[in-house]
Amino acid sequence: MARGKIVDALKSGRILVSDGAWGTFLQKKGLKPGECPELWCVDRPNDVFDVAKNYIDAGADMVESDSFGGTCYKLEHYHLANRTSEINVASAKISRKAAGDSKWVIASIGPTGKMLVIGDVTEDDLYKAFKEQAVALEKGGADAICIETMSAIDEAAIAIRAVKENTKCEVICTFTFELTAHGGYRTMMGVTPADGAKAALEAGADIIGPNCGNGIDRMIEIVREIKAATPKAFILVHANAGLPKNVNGVDIFPETPEEMAKKVPELIKAGANIIGGCCGTTPAHIRAIKQAVDAYKK
After folding, report:
1. Which of 96, 125, 180, 208 has its CA 20 to 30 A from that of 169?
2. pLDDT value at position 298?
3. What's the pLDDT tens digit per position in 45-67?
4. Is residue 59 included in any domain, yes or no?
């Protein structure tokens, strides 16, 4: 396989570029509130392909998949749990087609919405759910699994283990942090960047980092904290296009491609190895990030 492993590329010193937002892109294509985004992989595959292809054309080295809410637990809200495997295979196939032979597919797995701490799910059930999704994503052509937007260490660790024990995919694991009133960053479940990073690596993740919740400015601080705690780790960052502002009832992400790109050198110096976008970022943002990475390498 010409593209090899992502980790090997990082070991050689490459700084890689990931893709941008999927949800906001699909909404622009007509995804309605309350509609299942993942079902578009079966019902509207050309629209999903267009999202992935736009990011590849913008210069991304890797692209995610329309599978963030693809566990049986999330799909059961739409009475689609019995189609979990079908939907996930389809999502990875679409991104594989867009990525071609030279780019990586880092298929997305998001949280289940279930919480072990309150006992509404068992560890075994969580493991089975993540295993089912991961196996289907690998079958569809995923090179890596991006376990993202995590807030609880136990759920993240189970997801990592399910991927590692049942597929040959590399594992990326990212947590979402918020700036607390007292300063410092925590997930919704109180996990610090340092603790999340250490736990993900211990569970077997190949690449770690933060995604969503923050613009690139705050991500620089978070990456510094992760790097200090895990100096040898490879770090992926998916930053929002700034912090959202509500304009006439709609969340607008204000940071322009140029504004995000300007911060890329500082993010790399902080320790980021892969840089992409989350909410509000577009192919234009990814193109600008790619140009900034190329300029930094020169």
Report:
1. 125
2. 84
3. 999 999 999 999 999 999 999 99
4. yes
Q: What is the pLDDT of residue 250?
A: 82
The string of pLDDT tens digits covering residues 189-205 is 999 999 999 999 999 99
Residue 163: which residues within 8 A CB-CB, separation 6 or more? 109, 130, 134, 145, 147, 169, 171
Cβ within 8 Å of residue 257, ≥6 positions away: 282, 284, 285, 287, 288, 289
Structure tokens at 166: 């049942």
Domain of residue 88 covers: 6-297
pLDDT at 69: 98
Does residue 4 carry a pLDDT above 60?
A: yes
3-state secondary structure the chain: CCCCCHHHHHHCCCCEECCCCCHHHHHHCCCCCCCCHHHHHHHCHHHHHHHHHHHHHCCCCEECCCCCCCCHHHHHHHCCHHHHHHHHHHHHHHHHHHHCCCCEEEEEECCCCCCHHHCCCCHHHHHHHHHHHHHHHHHCCCCEEEEEEECCHHHHHHHHHHHHHHCCCEEEEEECCEECCCCCEECCCCCCHHHHHHHHHHHCCCEEEEECCCCHHHHHHHHHHHHHHCCCCEEEEEECCCCCEEECCEEECCCCHHHHHHCHHHHHHHCCCEEEECCCCCHHHHHHHHHHHHHHHC
Mean pLDDT of the chain, nearest integer: 97
- The enclosing domain of 259 has a CATH number of 3.20.20.330
Joined tokens for residue 24 = 């906001």
